[in-house]
Amino acid sequence: MKLIEITEKKDWSDLLERGKNPSFLQSWEWGVLQTSLGKELRRFSLEGGEKKLGLISLIREERKPFSGYWIAPKGPVFFDELHADFTKLGKLLEETLKEKTMFVRVEPELASQQRFTLPKKWKRHRAYNPSTTYCVDLTQSEEELLEHMHQKTRYNIRIAKRHGVITRLGTEQDLPLFLKLMQETAGRDGFRQHEGDYLRSTYEALQKEGMACIRVAEQEGELLAANLEIAFAGTLTYLYGASSGKNRNVMAPYLLHWEAMKAAKKEGLVSYDFWGANPADETELDFKSSWKGISRFKERWGGERLEYVGTYDIPLQPLLYKVLKTFGRL
C-alpha cells in the first residue's frame, strides 16, 4: 500500500463515489470549509499496485504549546473492506505526517461487529464523531415508514399537525434565529455546542454547494424548532437540532423530522441519518448517560442502529501522548 496525494476536486470526488456510504466529513467540500477556517488539510488515495483501495482526508489541529495532531473524521474510507490493512496504513501515516505531530486520529467507517485486527499501537479514544447512529431507510413507502415507527412517534406527528405546526425550508434570514435557538437549547439541556461563527460558516459554505439547509417548524409564525441538515452521497444527515422551551406540548420536532424524511425521499435520497446515539452496550466507552433520552427519541423512528469501530489514536510521540491522556488533555 502507498499514499498518493490528491489535489484536484474531480479526482477526489470520483474516488469517493466508490466508497460505501462515505460521510460528508470526507467530502471535498468539508475540506474546503476547514481550510477556510485556517486549518491545514491533506488528502490521499490508498493504493496497492495499480488498484485504488480507498482514501483518507486529514485535518490538522494545533495544540499549543504542544505540537498538533491530524484527524481523519469518519475516515479512512475503504472501497473493499477486505483490503483494510490497518498495520500498513498506520506506518504510512506515521512516515508521512510525523513532523511536529503528537498523534494521528482515525475513525474508520467499519461496522463494529465485523472482525478486524487493529494494531496494538492504536489507542482507543472516546468518539470524536459519533460511533453509533440510527439510519432510516427512505426507499420504503411513507406508509411503511410510519408503520415501523414507535406508536408514540406517529401520535406526536399527528399532535403537531393538529396544533397547526407547519414546516418550511429556512433561508439565510432564519440563520440568526436558528443560532439563538441553539443557544437556548444548549443552556436548557446542559450540553456544549459549537460557537455561532462556526455554525454560520458551516451553513454558508455547504449551503452554497447545495449540501446544507435549515428546516424550521413554526406555529402561528413563532419558531419552535429548527434543524441543520446535510445532504451527501444519498443520505440526509440531521447534524444539529434546536427547539424552543415554549409550547413543547405541540411536538414540533416530530413533524420537522417527518417532513425532512418526506422531502429527502422526493429528492431521491435513500437514507436519513440521525447522527449520534448511544451504543447498545452501556459499558461501552462511547456510552453517555446524558444521551439516554435523545437516543430513545432517535430509536423510535424505526431506523437501523449502526455501530462503528470508533475513534483510534496512532501515537507518534508516545510519552507526550501518554502524559496528556493521563491528565485528560486529549
UniProtKB/TrEMBL annotation:
InterPro entries: Acyl_CoA_acyltransferase, FEMABX, PG_Glycine_Bridge_Synth
GO BP term, example: cell wall organization
Organism from which the protein derives: Candidatus Uhrbacteria bacterium CG22_combo_CG10-13_8_21_14_all_47_17
GO molecular function terms attached to this record: aminoacyltransferase activity
Keywords assigned by UniProt, alphabetized: Acyltransferase, Cell shape, Cell wall biogenesis/degradation, Peptidoglycan synthesis, Transferase
UniProt keyword Transferase, yes or no: yes
Pfam families: FemAB
Protein name per its UniProtKB record: Peptidoglycan bridge formation protein FemAB
Family: Belongs to the FemABX family.
Top-level taxon of origin: Bacteria
